[in-house]
Specification:
alpha/beta, disordered N terminus, Rossmann fold, five-stranded parallel beta sheet, single chain, 22 helices
Length: 623
């Protein structure tokens, strides 16, 4: 059946038939090396935009301005105060003023003019971004979580002369770099927050002009320039990804990349989704993007509060009854079970959530199934990376099964290629995931070698992730190619796959699995979850405090047994199971240098940080 015929038939289906439809019609397989496209739209013509008048980020905003009739655009508030709103027209005017002011300060209306933004999320961030888009400039986010060396590297690589930042402390970091002659191109720092003359003098001393954001806006208002809108093929943003080793890589994303990716998302969610924590309770959001780790913690906290076997049984019974409704395409939050068991959970998220979108790491099928039932809302799972602008697959409305990341978006093709050393073969529907389409990035800024590693000569993006096609046409992430190593006997190990299994142990908050070619077995570093560990330990007969459990070898043995049990259930081989663990009582974090800003493990830093503990585990363990 051709893709257009599939789409026409899909439009005739009622909502409760959609799930069955997607289990019987796999996505079309194309002629280019077994690539697969979406069942939505024309598989031979990838989706580049959703609306004809919104093909760049500048046009997207202008469309929003036109449709809303100057409705509320950006909301902000102080703690325990109501939200204040800037209207679409206010934001557009401030963006034009700021952009015009930047041009007065010798910036150019050009897609090779890079403007740094060194700030936390706030309205001025979006205004600065829109100012760049209004005059065809490119925004380059800077993050203090990347560390000072990475910030210097980004400024120099992108040849950034102007940085807009929020706080005086960040401005001082930038000025210190100039003073030490490590960022010679930096000429202007623009502050969102108030500052005093000491900062201005500090800037004068090293040849950097310090300006207030409102000052630049006022300058632009007096010298207003006509907008210079970008083209779809022009750069919009350079996102420097931290990576787990080496310098950050600057992924160059065009306006066309960004528009294509969210257009694919919009197309997939065209089904009847009913239009889709203090801040949650105050704002009452309807759409809630979240990483799987937070969903896991929500799930664990809910069950840890069911303190008796009877309460837990009742909670599980109610969830099973609602899960039956979900399987039949009924998603609601007004059933008897909701009133008796789940209303408090729903209220903790603001009470109006209609859609949860999760990605960035594999999500547990059990957790997703429970939360779809307990929260009474659509829970979508997607997969992608910065290099394809965000997502390349997404759960299809009506298919509320778990254990996969959905089907290809209408803006890209996917194919799986052989990974011989890991025994994954495309003929078996397994292999490294490759992506091609208008959402795939142009390459890494000034890094031809890394670009050639990521993009092949036919413009396929090689993700480094291992996927498997399921019979219904959805994709399952099963492994990771980049972080594999051999044990002494020659077996290949993919530690992230093992970690994703072990972290489902109730008392495990985080885990790092280690091995190398000089050793015959794996060891692990485990961070127990402070919210649930004591309760779990009591059920196992340990009457100790959280801190005391660190010294209990019996507790450690019980924890290993629980992890290994989960590993067996997930099909891990004996050589893939850890034989010893060290308990660590500080969370891995961006601040202590063990996680990237996207919360991925920095494996080389982990190895060095825990070198002594790893050596002890190997020397004290015999198998």
């Amino acid at each position: 059946m051709q893709a257009k015929e599939i789409l026409r038939n899909l439009q005739l289906l009622e909502l409760d038939e959609i799930s069955q439809f997607f289990h019987t019609i796999p996505p079309p397989t194309l002629g280019c090396g077994g690539a697969r496209g979406s069942v939505l739209g024309d598989s031979l013509q990838l989706m580049t935009h959703y609306h004809d008048d919104a093909r760049t980020m500048y046009e997207v905003y202008q469309r929003g301005l036109h449709i809303t009739g100057d409705g509320p655009c950006l909301g902000f508030r102080k703690p325990k105060h109501p939200y204040q709103w800037l209207s679409y027209k206010e934001v557009a005017n401030r963006a034009e003023n700021l952009g015009s002011g930047l041009l007065q300060k010798n910036c150019r209306s050009s897609p090779d003019q890079f403007i740094g933004v060194f700030a936390q999320n706030r309205p001025e961030w979006i205004i600065a971004e829109l100012a760049c888009y209004t005059y065809s400039m490119v925004i380059v986010p800077l993050y203090d979580t990347l560390g000072p060396e990475a910030i210097r590297y980004i400024i120099n690589t992108a040849e950034i002369s102007t940085v807009i930042c929020d706080k005086v402390e960040k401005a001082k970091v930038l000025l210190k770099n100039v003073e030490m002659k490590e960022t010679p191109d930096l000429e202007i720092v623009i502050l969102m927050d108030p500052f005093d003359m000491d900062l201005v003098q500090m800037g004068n001393d090293c040849g950097v002009q310090i300006l207030a954001l409102r000052e630049v806006e006022n300058l632009g208002q007096m010298n207003r320039r006509t907008p210079v809108p970008p083209r779809p093929e022009d750069l919009s943003i350079v996102c420097f990804t931290s990576g787990t080793t080496g310098n950050p890589k600057g992924a160059m994303l065009t306006h066309g990349n960004v528009v294509a990716d969210f257009s694919g998302f919009l197309k997939v969610t065209e089904g009847d989704i009913r239009l889709l924590s203090d801040d949650m309770k105050a704002l009452h959001p309807t759409i809630f993007p979240v990483v799987p780790r937070l969903l896991n913690r929500m799930y664990d906290k809910i069950f840890s509060q069911a303190g008796t076997p009877v309460k837990r049984w009742l909670l599980e019974f109610a969830a099973r009854r609602k899960a039956t409704e979900v399987r039949n395409g009924i998603i609601r939050n007004n059933s008897l079970w909701d009133k008796l068991f789940f209303k408090k959970i729903q209220d903790s998220l603001g009470g109006k959530v209609r859609m949860i979108v999760t990605g960035a790491a594999p999500a547990s099928p059990a957790v997703l199934g429970f939360l779809r039932a307990a929260l009474g809302c659509q829970v979508y799972e997607g997969y992608g990376q910065t290099e394809c602008t965000a997502g390349c697959t997404f759960t299809t409305p009506g298919d509320w099964t778990s254990g996969h990341v959905g089907a290809p978006l209408p803006c890209n093709y996917l194919k799986l290629i052989n990974v011989d050393e890991m025994k994954y073969f495309s003929a078996k529907g397994e292999g490294e995931i490759c992506v091609k389409g208008p959402n795939v990035f142009k390459g890494y800024l000034k890094d031809t070698e890394k670009t050639d590693e990521a993009l092949d000569k036919d413009s396929w993006l090689h993700t480094g992730d291992i996927g498997k096609w399921l019979p219904n046409g959805t994709l399952k992430i099963i492994d990771r190619k980049k972080h594999i190593f051999k044990l002494a006997q020659g077996e290949y190990i993919a530690p992230e796959k093992i970690e994703n299994i072990y972290v489902r142990s109730e008392p495990v908050a985080q885990v790092y699995v280690h091995g190398d070619s000089l050793q015959s077995f794996l060891v692990g570093i485990v961070v127990p979850d402070p919210e649930v560990t004591e309760a779990w330990a009591r059920k196992k007969g340990f009457e100790h405090s959280y801190a005391e459990l660190a010294k209990s070898e019996a507790f450690k043995k019980a924890l290993i047994e629980d992890m290994v049990k989960l590993g067996k259930q997930a099909g891990l081989y004996s050589f893939e199971q850890v034989k010893a663990i060290h308990l660590h009582y500080e969370m891995f974090s961006v601040q202590n240098g063990l996680l990237t800003p996207t919360l991925k493990a920095k494996r080389s830093e982990m190895r060095n940080y825990f070198r002594k503990q790893i050596e002890d585990l190997y020397s004290n363990t015999s198998i």
